[in-house]
Amino acid sequence: MSSVKNKYQFEDLLDKHQLKKTAARLRVLSMMYSKNTATSQPDLESVMQDIDRVTLYRILSVFEEKGIIHKVFDLNGTANYAVCHSDCEANHHHDEHVHFNCTACYNVYCLNELTLPDLKLPAGFRAEGFTLYASGLCPTCSKKVS
Asked: Environment class of residue 132 by beta-carbon count within 10 Å: exposed (0-12), middle (13-18) or buried (19+)?
């Protein structure tokens, strides 16, 4: 998930989605792009103590609504957020890939290279999203038990 971007690329991303370029939004984008795992709002709050909880919640909500990030749940049911690497649209995410939950460190990884198969749903069903989770040990935790 990690991708090197600079402040101007984040500003361009906000422009593309018709969002104001606030310091808080730029910091959240910078933090999320610097991680190789999904992150929860409480984790972001702990490192961004100068951004209040409500503001952070609103930033994450609008980023998800605009297709900048997507929500994925960890093993405890906590919402985590990861950067969209597909060209997602507002309210329609194309980041349909496998998510991996590590049972040791509890990190959530987007496995972008593992795309989800097309599903033929029974008549009358219309999918608005599809998620596949795998769980086990991430590479770092696997090394610790070897």
From this structure: middle
